[in-house]
Model the fold of this input.
Amino acid sequence: MVNSIVAYAKKNKAINAIHLKLMQKEGQLLYLLIVDCNGNLSDVTQGIADAARPHVPQGYGLAMVPITDRLGQQAADNEAFYVKKKGLFGF
Done:
């Protein structure tokens, strides 16, 4: 799943970083993706979902929140598994 998301993120220049957490909500295990992006959040999360969905194990869910959201800020306490590489001059 992570490899597919990274492949998508490398193609989408709006994505700056993505964090991953495993959480449980109402008895269901969820992969929570915290997304840091500059573009249209709806388009970005749809693309991530399309890349991830075929690899989500049976019985698991997938949820996404923007890093600007309160939950996103609290949950992004780990190192991002994807960070956009900056160019030669840091752009």
